[in-house]
Amino acid sequence: MSLALVCMSHSPLLEFNDPPAEVKAEVDAAFETARAFVADYDPTLVVSFAPDHYNGFFHDLMPPFCIGFEAQGVGDYGTAAGPLSVPTELAERLAGWVAERDLDVAISRRMEVDHGAVQPLEILLGGIDTVPTIPVFVNGVAEPFTRMARVRKLGEAIGSFLTTLEDERVLVIGSGGLSHDPPVPRWATADEAQRAMLLDGRHPTAAARDARQQRVIDTGRAFAAGTATIRDLNPEWDQELMRVLASGDLSPIDAMTPRQMAEDAGNSAHEVRTWVAAYAALGTAGPYDVASSYYRPIREYIAGFGVMTARTRA
Ligand SMILES: O=C(O)CCc1cccc(O)c1O
Ligand SMILES: [Fe+2]
Q1: Which domains occur in the chain, in start order?
Q2: Which ranges of 177-307 would DSSP assign to H, the alpha helix?
Q3: In this structure, are residues 46 and 117 in contact, taking their beta carbons and an 8 Å threshold?
Q4: What is the number of H-type helices and E-type strands within the chain?
Q5: Measured in angstroms, how far is the CA atom of residue 213 from the centroid of ligand 1?
Q6: From 98's CA, which of 39, 190, 233, 279 has a CA 20 to 30 Å away?
Q7: Is 10's C-beta closer than 6 angstroms to any atom of ligand 1?
């Protein structure tokens, strides 16, 4: 039983800010390569590991991980809103399998997902309901964070389930930045209004959503112009992590600590947890080969921007 993987940075700024034309062309080419990889594999099932940016999960109840039995896009930054095509019974079986392996994972029968989950589905599969998809939320913004070994174990547990599905061709997706430090409020430093949003800011008014998004868009423009105060991207850190993921031996990742990750690569570098889970899942089907790998630090997108495809060795 083989598996396939796409890990990609996402950025809500893809449609709002423009890097130099040659950089934009590179990113488009990397997406096209990944799309062709997916089309060739022709998945019958997708497992999407994605973070959330205080659109679906809040501090009123923040799990480290959550498997969606039903899910809908919230439609932030112009991404698709509405239901994903979640195979509910299969998602329930997956959650049971994971629970039996000593991993305590939340479930949701009404998961709300944002651009973190939706953007890869739109880019790779042409929409949020084109291929049956089990969404797995991996917290990448809210402290406290689990140890990285736990993320790897979750990926392995999910992968071991997927390898039992003889009749499926399963694509695992990891979505999120490598190094990046976008202006997502953090509880410890948030003001009162931000804390209200972080606590339970579901379903904001259009005006509130616009204001929040405009702040991120403006920060991207300032970052590109060299006038933003956010932490810089870290291409060395990003490329070293990509090298480890490609190597097939994820054990060095267990030693990474959340504090050091934030210091080296910014507060949203925790989104790489989705890549670790996806690669750990892929590895359960045996040795794998990276088919394509793109990387460029792109300040206009506020992201160390990577796109990787990989597949179980034939
Ligand atoms: O909170 C938001 O609105 C999105 C912030 C954001 C910006 C760039 C790249 C990202 O991965 C990201 O999450
Ligand atoms: Fe993100």
Answers
A1: 3-312 (3.40.830.10)
A2: 192-200, 206-225, 235-247, 258-265, 273-283
A3: no
A4: 9, 11
A5: 9
A6: 39
A7: yes
Local confidence pLDDT in tens for the 314 residues of the chain: 899 999 999 999 999 999 999 999 999 999 999 999 999 999 999 999 999 999 999 999 999 999 999 999 999 999 999 999 999 999 999 999 999 999 999 999 999 999 999 999 999 999 999 999 999 999 999 999 999 999 999 999 999 999 999 999 999 999 998 999 999 999 999 999 999 999 999 999 999 999 999 999 999 999 999 999 999 999 999 999 999 999 999 999 999 999 999 999 999 999 999 999 999 999 999 999 999 999 999 999 999 999 999 999 98
Measured in whole angstroms, the distance separating CA 73 from the mean position of its chain's CA atoms is: 14
Tokens (6 digits) for 1: 């039983």
Task: Taking each helix axis as running N to C, give the angle between helix 235-247 and helix 258-265, from 0 to 180 degrees, rounded to the nearest 10.
Answer: 130
Contact 48, 133 (CB under 8 A): yes
- Which ranges of 6-134 does DSSP label H, i.e. alpha helix? 21-41, 88-100, 115-125
Q: Is the CB of 270 under 6 A from ligand 1?
A: no
Q: Check if 233 has its Cβ closer than 6 Å to any atom of ligand 1.
A: no
